Fold each of these.
Amino acid sequence: MTHWIVAPIVLPAMLAAILVLVARFHISLQRILSVAGTVVLFAIAAGLFWQASDGTISVYQLGHWQAPFGVVLVADRLSTLMVLVTATLAPLVLLYAIGSGWDTRGQHFHPLYQFQLMGIMGAFLTGDAFNLFVFFEVLLIASYGLMIHAGGAARLRAGTQYVLYNLLGSTLFLFALGTIYAQTGTLNMADLAVRVAELDPANSAGIRVAAVLLLLVFAVKAAILPLHFWLPSSYAEAPAPVAALFAIMTKVGAYGIIRTYTLIFPPDLEITQGLFDTWLMPAALLTLALGMIGVLGARRIDRQVAFAVIGSMGMLLSAVAVFTPAGITAALYYAIHSTFATAALFLLVDVLRDRRNAVGVWLNDAVPVTGGPLVAGMFFVAAIAMTGLPPLSGFVGKLLIMDAARESNLVWWVWGTVLVGSLIAVVGFSRAGSQIFWRAHQVASAQEADPESEANEVNTKDNSAPEPALPMVAIGTLLALLVALTVFAGPMTRNLSATAAQLFNTDPYIAAVLSKPGKTIKDDHADEAAHDATYTDTEEGH
Amino acid sequence: MELLVASAIGVLTAAGIYMVLRLRTFPVIIGTSLLSYAVNVFLFASGRLAMNAPPVLRDGVDVYTDPLPQALVLTAIVISFGMTAVVVIMAVGSYLSAGEDLVDVPKEDVDIPQAPHSLRGEPVE
């Protein structure tokens, strides 16, 4: 049964290989396999989530080596929750990609998509810091391919910036890991937790540097203020389904922060005191402010949504920075909400881009969008969720965050920034919505007065073309998930506060990882022959 | 030995950061390569510097060098090599399609394109 833990990583990896090698020239076969794969992935993720929902921490030893020596995968509440969120998002975004034909606009969309899923799943499940780096690279290299899917000058340019920025982030990650290894002699997260706690606070310069470097690395991924520059243009230029899948990628950074700073550098650890109060909280609030101002200032809808992502990451991390179980609960709720909300918005932006032929994503006057009421309604719902107006889950998430922030000594700053920021975002999205859907009608009625206008023909032609239903189903399901998240907010927060409680009680995690028996290198001289045999066997096995 | 390794890491990092801050993609890529060399040497040193010591357990040997950083460095080298190849290809593609290799915000992002006049319409009074 424990082999299920590795399934979310192995399944997409094998499937991607099959898609490249066998189904390379058969797009319909690729589509069927890819959708089937993500559906199975969802079932596995749901199973793992259910398995961990009673508080069990399952450990999977790769190659059956005992924990500090071998790499382990750990399925606790937090990692299975994130795996489940990813596996819920994946089939929906894939349906959109198929329905809108994005997967045929370039080569190898489906294999790259599966590799991307493999990297994300691995990053959530691994219990080893260096393995986390490796899975970051897997998800990044797949994202580079997806980012420039379908090509184009603007996309390639944004893609190059994105890759360069992430290369620097990876280098920083390696520096952080090297420092950690030099200070503690281990990279297993549970083992690190034990050894960091034993370090002498008077002689801890190295590990403090490592803690800050790690925070910077995850801040790059989560797009926190001084390190957010890669996000707006890459998310805006990426193909819509890819941008929607990227909605989970910023959460990988947030996950890294939550995991590392609850397990390895817990809040009561003396050597990292003040890191969150002094640095993360102000940075998160500035990120929130910048994102919301960007929402108001953007002149293209795709950039507007990209800035909304930055704002939501600021919101999420201001809850993380409180660093109490209540704060983590709020942050997790908001993370789930903002993943689905941003994914829905990116997909809607793509629908608008296709249907507003000439002006595309620019917030200019244009003829009405075809299928107006449905698209407009969906945009309205998604924007309400994103900006955190009642009655949708964004509002619940924001309430939870503000409630959790009462324990912070920066409480008034948090409340002020969250409330003013939301107001600015509401204004920004209202402006975009009224420009696209309402001013469009004014333009249209002006054109009806002038029947000779060439635009009328374009307009009628577009209205008669049937619109594929699959993209709308995908977006509708994402919005339905937001509604469900609101309706089941009670059970959901109960589950999440259990998750947060498990995170703050690190002893069971450490015990589960380190006490699980497995192959080990024996120090005993009497066993040397046996040990040598084991060692050689494994070497040959590799 | 310590001085040599430390200064090598320092010089590589400094040169890499200088190159990364350039405005064109080619020097930036050279910069990321230099940084990845720096981090590889750094990782190598993170298991302490031991001269002429074997990394695998053998009979009659008491002093070992830490084998783990060597495995980490191998992984890091492979990954950074692959990433550099990807970014070179993307930079070349970007250069060929855009006709320039500057890494800053393109001009098209600064100006709003206007729709054809017939589609734009004028606001109704």
Amino acid sequence: MNLTLFVWRQKGPAEKGRLEQFNAKDISPEMSFLEMLDTVNEGIIKDGKEPIAFDHDCREGICGMCSQVINGVPHGPQEKTTVCQLHMRNFKDGGSIYIEPWRARAFPVIKDLIVDRSALDRIIQAGGYISVHTGGVPDANAVLVSNDDADAAMDASECIGCGACVAACPNGSAMLFTASKVTHLAMLPQGQVEAARRVCVMTEAMTQEGFGNCSNHYECQAACPKGIRVQFIAKLNREFIRAQFKGARRESPQ
Amino acid sequence: MRFLENTVGRKIVIAVTGQLMAVFAIFHLLGNYFNPYSMKFPDIGSFIWLARLAMLLSFGLHTFFGIQAELENHKARTGPYALKKSISTTFAAKTMIWSGILSGVFIIFHLLNFTFSVIDESFQDNYAVALGYTIGLSAVCLHLYHGIASFFQTMGWNSEKSLSVITMAGKGMALLLFAGFICIVVLNRV
């Protein structure tokens, strides 16, 4: 396959970026998207130029590092797929591909296609944890969890924190990410102690990091490589309302 | 006041005030077809003033928090994508700020026209006013096309299965309201 790439190049966070054109020649349809970029980069390096910088790690669709908006869709055209699991057979030979970084104020570009997603870590740090007893290992079924609740918590915990929801959101909101973390812990008995406080401080942290407000576009759900559903945002909203009646404890629990 | 500083808290205020106005619009339409003033309500006078107060408050809060959210959302985005595809959002959802502003202007015009009689021209005998009503009603119903169903998501009043049904029903209700109101303009005009 031969393709024309339009790739976002940006030297640093303060630099102005622009799209640069590359020709990707002799690309196998069985290559992953990242392998295609590796091939293009080898050519760029041979020409003595600066290769395209992009994030990647596990290359098996579970780490959440790859972060590219491909032809206007985060993680590209295939549903529920990360960039590393996207294969070139999904593209037309001779076609052109636009590759851009996640664009959000809370995700400053570090270089080219690499953005700083530590804002998501700080949302987790604000309240994405539970308190447990230290000491001996508890008995396996000492705390009972219904199968439905366990399934819902498991579904919510599938979020890999890649930030595609933010990249897709017309408001640059991280509500799907935050909702998946809140729901994951709110579904389980172990998460109840901090539940009221958690939903308040995590949504506040989201705003402080410069993410926008959710206005129910549902673009996040469509872009999510793990199929996290907007029903979790409804769950977050219910948790928030419940927290108002419970009088969320504000102080840090330490 | 932490509630009103929180993004979800403010979203709930926007949703509740918006839905109150949407419910009013439904009764307003029913009132146009089945005149309630001719029915014998025990004390409609004080009820109307209560409703007017609720509407005024809703209008103010909805406008304030809606514009605030839009400004923040605008700031949260950096530069447009060279290429961006929308997958599931709608034209109505993307234009809420504009349909909202247009609706606000239309509602003020409508009040000056009918309630306060400051503007004397009526859509019955002025084509320009009739056109204004058509544009205004379109904006209101476009706003409701996203708004009515959105309320249920914001309140968390849905489930895995009901989300799509509620979304369809909300859109249907907005279209029904548009049909109902536009008939009044068209039938009185012809």
Amino acid sequence: MIHKTKKILIVDDERDVLTYFEAVFQDNGYDTVSAEDGIEGFERAKSEKPDLIVLDVTMPKQSGLKTYRQLKRHAALKNIPVIIVAAVIDSFKVLLDELEEPELPKGIFNKPIDPQALLKVVSEILSD
Amino acid sequence: MAEKLSNVSSPNDVLKWINPQLFEAIPLGIAVIDSDYNLVYANKAFERLFGPWKNRKCYNVYKSKDAMCSYCESAMTFKDGVSRINEEVGYDKNKIHISYLQHTAPIVDENGNFPYIVHIFTNITEAAQIRDEHQILYDQVPCNILLIDKNFRIVKANKRLRDSLGNPEGKHCFEALKGVKHKCTECTARQTFTDGQIHTGYHVWKTQTGKTLHLHVVTVPLKRADGSFDLVMEMAVDVTQTLKLQDDLKFAHSYLQTIISTSMDGIFAVNEKGKVTIFNPAARNFFKIKDDQIVSREELAAMLPKGFLAKVSQQPGHVYLPETEVRANDGETVPVRLIGNKLMADDGSIGMAFSVQDLSEIKRLEREKLEAERLAAVGHTVAGLAHGIKNLITALEGGMYMLNSGLDKESIDRVQKGMEMLARNIQRISIFVKAFLSFSKGREIQAKMSNPADIAEEVVGVYSVKAEELGILLKNEKIGDIPPAPIDYESMHECLTNLVGNAIDACQMSNGTACQVTVSAFEENGTIVYEVTDNGCGMDYQVKKKVFTTFFTTKGLGGSGLGLLMTQKIVHEHGGSIDLKSESGKGTTFRIRLPRRRLPKLIEKEA
């Protein structure tokens, strides 16, 4: 049985973090695409139709929180699972609570991350 | 005329001789009219009163009328022969209004007819006038007057009393005036009946409509020539209004007294002679003065700021010191808000009144707020630090991962990449740590009297060469006079250096050609303001939101993200605030505001 290779969109404003995550995911059999801020991330989600999105929170131009809400309100994108990987996640959780966001992210990881733990969650989400 | 008289009376020699004499000598005016009202005789006294009378009718002489009076006593006497007396008004020989009593008596002839009538006049003009004046006085004097007999029945009451209480004549005074069935226990009229003296008292009457009147009463015996009397005149002045005003005044006084004595603010007053007349409990508590201690004007002046009392006394209106210090009795100084008022009445000053508010608590809260703001700044810094460090660690881990996996895969390219990532992020750590060290040194700011405009001028001087090289017009504007203030010169210098550096960077990032950075310093309403304005690239909303809150940088590896955080920390430590206005593509203005009253205390001068 041949599985179609799953595609992951990584959104982070740190170029080195992108390089890191791209290598980790590619080494484990995933395709990756990247974006360096929230606006670019939303555009790439629309054009690339990834199977999963890894999203940073604190970014220039447009934050991860706004991008997350944008994704969840977009008819074609709202079903793509999102994992938050950020340096400061506490305020992000509080904000999601306050905004009474109907759907929570599939995973929330605090930087620095354990790549094995991240990969485990990703594979669970993406195994059909 | 004498013959005529002798015709109708019995002839008598003595009478014949005496009649004309008596007739002329008598001081009353006497005249005789016939049945056609012609005056046929009159004596000298009549002529003195009415003037010429011959060939004239009575009504023409007495009343200056051309026709008979509509009501004529003489006409009736001509008919019935009855003598009459009545009061008349008419005109004297000078056409002046007079009042007179007129006796009308018939002259009876042998047949019992009345061919003539005798008029005898008594001039009562003066008496009538006095009587009228008395009546007016009696009725209209602003006072109730009544006459009471020994049985306490009201014989007479003046109009004023009848108007307010109805006509009480014939009734018992206690019933008519007070609505009670029995004599009053305290009765000024009875006192007067008993000893014949004048007595005064205070009475309460009830009107028929239920209104209560308060009266000041005087009772006077109405004595006859021999000193005996049956009646007492009672004069009662209505003092209801006066009493009400007195009550109102008493109420207003105690109302004010209560407010003053319970006020949380210190209230005190000095009268026009300089005597301290009011010193409320709050003020006593405040100045630490015992309840029974009297404060002299000199003592008061010593407690208040120098010259304050004199200043208040010099001008009408108030003198307001929003923030000053007073000296309590124990020598301690207290921060206060002080208001002095010169009190004016119609004809000049009646003294001064003062209100003093304790600012200690407000000052304490202000200090606490400043402290909280400083702690919040530290909190932001720590949160920002965590963010920065976590990103750095993640990048370092990434480098390690690339290096390790590159070695495993024997991929030189990947090893190379990993090495670069490690090197780059170690370099970042060193920039970061340097900035952080200077930030974390967190030396206490050391405020010295500094000239605020000098700081701006010096910072502009530092950047002038660089700005010129970059083709940026860097200007320094000092608007108005800014007196020296307690500021940490070095720290504020660093703030402005950061802002000007940012502005120059923003200019370099913009596409415009005529770049300009302006640093201005001015003071408005006790607040020192620095403004750094550029027409560079500006910021969008997302960037604006973050500039002060995290280790945020738009300059990639070139900045630590600490500059503005540092600036904000210093400004907060000076009790000030910093904000920014920016429009993407148009430019940015940073504004530092330093209210003088929140500036730090000067450090002690070193010897």
